[in-house]
Amino acid sequence: MAGNKLSFIIPAKNEAKLIGGIIKEISKLKPFEIIVVDNGSRDNTKEIVKQLGGRVIEYPYPLGRNVPRAIGAYYAKGDILLFIDGDQVITSDKLKPFIQAIEEGADVTLNDFRYVLKQKRSPHCTAVARKGLNLFLNKEEHDIDSYVSIPHAMNRKALETIGWWNLSETGVAIAKTFMSDLKAESPIAINVLRKNARRPGARIRAKTSPFAITHDEILGDHVLGLHYLIEQKGNRGGFLDDRNVEISTVNKEPPTPGKTRCKRSAVIVTTKGRGKSVPSLISRLETAKVNEIVIVTDHTKDSFSEMKKNNKVKVIKISGSEGTYYERFIAVQHVRGENVLFLDGDFLLSTREINRFYKAVEGNTDLALNDKGYLLGHYPMSSKTSIHYCLNILMKKPDLLNFSLTEYPHALSRRVLDHHQPEDLLKPPVAYVKAILSNFTISAPQRIKTCEEDVKCDEIFLGDHLEAINLLIENTHEKGGFSDGKKFEAINELRRKEEENESP
């Protein structure tokens, strides 16, 4: 097409039933070469490919996900490389847009998967991870488009930028694509999901994970992509951090000698909002037998002067310039309760709802969070919900849905407060991951509808969550504790060969 040499790269294992039809279909596009990387076939896949004029790169054993693609890219000589799979026939008219877009100026073309998260069904774990990675890469417009799904294509410039060997790691490959000057487009949507769902690895559960083997490996690839981003731009991925707090200058308020801790404390935050519900909240907290109430406010006027007369209430004024979540950091150093409930002063809870959070942390729960799972039923799923859900998936806690320590109301047990440092609460996602890694228990005892989430995530939010994921990586490995069934020996051998050929 248009004078460019086109290379088709097809991984295959026991695909004798389909490979002939695939090659006949793509031959309509007059490719320069068809490379089939046969890894572990025991049927006559290789013979069919050769009879139809294709080149076979043969390995006697399965190479694992994506490794055959990388090997095929190493051998390819074309100007445009188009990657498909050997287990489904895609018609030439559907493949043509991937090539045409590159001929018209794109460097990379991806399968348009934006329709997936618009469907009225629970989003798949890998789709959420794909969207999360793209959000952290500041590429929200690409939604969940990725090298995970075929078809996709690239020109020689893209291949050299990404590195052929990195095509075995889809998370790193997409990170390198989006962090460079490569132009990526998604010209057409092709549904390839039905065939993927029938693969054995998509049905058998991984040994140390709640996910199927294939999905577990895909999630690990995406953590590796985040690890690459962190390596390049720091543990916040280059996102802003607005904290202006001198941690060493603030100390916990020492307990009064001989005085035991009270049972229930509450923190009411009125920063940014008007605190319109504070008087009613105080009344209901007292009904719930809360012994200590701390109000943190950045209001310039003394709106809570009357409340100071209540010996259960303490008002802490802040300037509002200290940075995000400072109110939690300062408040936790002034509460003495065995269990602490954090509330937004603009939202009124009933006494019954208040009691549910306290009873959870007075029992076996350490973090009692707001159940905002209803947001997963909003289509398309918002970016903020996606990041919350993505973090829980990467922590291997998909049952926690999009529950988050960033959302009010939530309650913490003294066990967590004593384990964490006050500064941990400056970055709630980090405190959250630290709690999970320390095996604290988490539940969502009550659903409180506060406000609908913003469509976009701000830099503080993204940076905090990336720091939390970095904490996971530091406590596991660069794939976040997920499995990896790839055989990299073949890639390593080709890289050694490549280096030897380049040596003077």
UniProtKB/TrEMBL annotation:
Keywords: Glycosyltransferase, Transferase
Coiled-coil ranges from the UniProt annotation: none
Family: Belongs to the glycosyltransferase 2 family.
Organism of provenance: Rossellomorea oryzaecorticis
Pfam families assigned: Glycos_transf_2
Boundaries of every Glycosyltransferase 2-like domain copy: 7-117, 267-367
GO MF terms, alphabetically ordered: glycosyltransferase activity
CDD domains recorded: Glyco_tranf_GTA_type
Protein name, as recorded: Glycosyltransferase family 2 protein
UniProt EC number: 2.4.-.-
